[in-house]
Design a protein that fits this description.
22 helices
Length: 515
């Protein structure tokens, strides 16, 4: 009997040690993903994408919109086997919520600093109707092509906007500070980068998202994930059938309630001693605090049979997701002086300029999740989030700070959804995203009678030639544009010395073409 008790105790200790090790491994992987994805958005060198670009492509919604079925199926299988590991390890918004929840439990932020870390959370019944309604609306909007609206709820996109609008400016400011310090010591290990506001509206939405999600995480842990997040809802229904899960050994449970008060997902029912697998994110906090070792992580000995209604509900939602992916797959086939220089004002374009590789406005609108990774990574200061309702927060090109250099294809390399398809530098030089338009009333040779030719000298496609003015043969030469050779890079618009409006600007094309 003594030997049997010792053997049982030894097995329990080994199990506890294994659970602790698994929890530490989960936290380590979560930090790696969180830091890696954040670097993708804040990095100003482009080096991070070379090694970490795959982290954006394994996010659930970007993979779905890119019809990367291998990643989607792999994530669903992972959830079917291990539960919602994705939400606690791979999803950056989920990991951010865990960090905020962890910070809220530190003594520095608690009113009663002597109180134990338990007694923090409480069980709440699942708001199934809200989750289903949000998911149904989310899927319908995607199918209708309104991905810019759904981006407000998509977890990866929401975190991307937070990183691009709130974290990257701090990162750039710190980099510029180091550059100034290094320059003082005759070192050029760092170089300064322009710090500017790309979109006031996008900044406001990012700040509002951080405040709402952060407040919910501070107060109640994973409320956003288990009530609003559509990805969490989909994976929750898959996790209902997961093989390996956290469960309670009811024979050992002493009903102390520690697990419930430490569950940030509020999914452990203290009365029935059940763990809701649709909301459990397998964080392992309950395993750590259970003194009776009643919390288990593995295959339940007596798995409950799922009601037919719930099974049909899961299959219908999975079908909705599959239909969305299938339809998307079908779409994929079909001055040196002392004068004050006046800032340029943006021209009014009839058709917005979309990045090379996006193929068309329609393709960008239907596949872009507005994560703004391309905006954060654009080295030329050309891309910024749109304020238009038609393509809200999706990337568009403006040329008042720079132009789209023909040798640059970074935006197409970092896009994880296929909204901007990968193109080579050679392909970039042949893609016509728009064409230049001359505005006679703004041109310096016409209004001032001074020679210029800046647009022709800097046109990389040699699409602009200076010709005599047919209205005044004695005046300086004026530009003539060959729209068949123009690729819409914006060098002419950006480098035109006319102020406040350029004498030449680029009008976008709804559908790009190769020349």
């Amino acid at each position: 009997m003594v030997q049997s008790n010792r053997a049982s105790t030894s097995r329990t200790e080994r199990k506890s040690s294994t659970n602790t090790m698994l929890r530490k491994a989960r936290i380590t992987l979560a930090l790696i993903f969180w830091i890696g994805i954040t670097l993708l958005f804040v990095d100003i060198t482009g080096l991070a994408h070379t090694y970490l670009g795959w982290m954006a492509k394994v996010q659930f919604l970007p993979a779905l919109l890119a019809t990367n079925l291998i990643v989607v199926v792999a994530l669903l299988l992972l959830t079917l086997i291990m539960g919602r590991i994705y939400c606690s390890v791979i999803c950056p918004l989920g990991v951010m919520q865990d960090f905020i929840a962890w910070m809220s439990r530190r003594p520095l932020f608690r009113k009663n600093k002597r109180a134990k870390l338990a007694n923090r959370y409480s069980y709440s019944k699942p708001k199934q109707w809200l989750r289903i309604v949000v998911l149904a609306v989310f899927v319908m909007l995607i199918l209708a092509g309104f991905t810019s609206i759904t981006a407000l709820l998509a977890p990866y996109s929401a975190y991307g906007r937070i990183a691009a609008n709130l974290i990257q400016p701090v990162y750039v400011w710190a980099n510029n500070l180091l550059a100034h310090v290094a320059e003082h010591y005759d070192s050029y290990a760092f170089y300064t980068t322009d710090l500017w506001l790309k979109s006031t509206l996008s900044l406001a939405i990012a700040a509002a998202t951080l405040l709402v999600v952060g407040f919910l995480a501070w107060r109640n842990g994973r409320t956003w994930c288990n009530t609003i997040c559509p990805v969490g809802t989909v994976l929750g229904f898959v996790a209902r059938f997961s093989r390996v899960r956290i469960y309670i050994d009811k024979e050992k449970c002493t009903s102390c309630g520690l697990c419930t008060r430490n569950c940030k997902a509020s999914c452990i029912d203290p009365e029935t001693h059940d763990v809701d697998p649709t909301r459990c994110i397998v964080c392992g906090d309950c395993l750590q605090v259970c003194h009776a070792k009643a919390m288990k992580h593995g295959i339940p000995h007596t798995p409950e049979r799922q009601p037919d209604g719930e099974r049909r509900q899961f299959l219908s939602l999975l079908a909705m997701t599959s239909v969305a992916a299938t339809l998307k797959a079908q779409e994929k086939t079909v001055d040196g002086g002392l004068a004050i220089i006046e800032d340029k004002q943006l021209p009014t374009r009839t058709t917005p300029l979309t990045p090379p590789g996006s193929q068309s406005q329609r393709n960008l609108q239907q596949h872009c999740t507005s994560c703004q990774l391309c905006v954060a990574q654009c080295p030329n200061g050309v891309l910024r989030p749109s304020d238009s309702l038609e393509n809200f927060m999706q990337p568009e090109m403006q040329y008042e700070r720079g132009y789209c250099r023909p040798e640059c294809n970074r935006c197409s390399q970092v896009c994880p959804t296929g909204a901007i398809k990968p193109i080579t530098v050679e392909q970039r030089t042949a893609i016509q995203v728009g064409h230049a338009v001359w505005i006679k009333k703004n041109c310096i040779p016409v209004i001032e009678g001074q020679r210029c030719g800046n647009c022709a000298r800097h046109c990389p496609a040699q699409a602009i030639q200076m010709v005599p003015n047919p209205d005044d043969e004695m005046s300086p030469l004026i530009p003539a544009i060959d729209t068949e050779k123009c690729i819409g890079c914006g060098a002419c618009e950006n480098l035109c010395p006319a102020r406040p409006f350029s004498a030449i600007y680029v009008e976008g094309h709804e559908v790009h073409r190769e020349i």
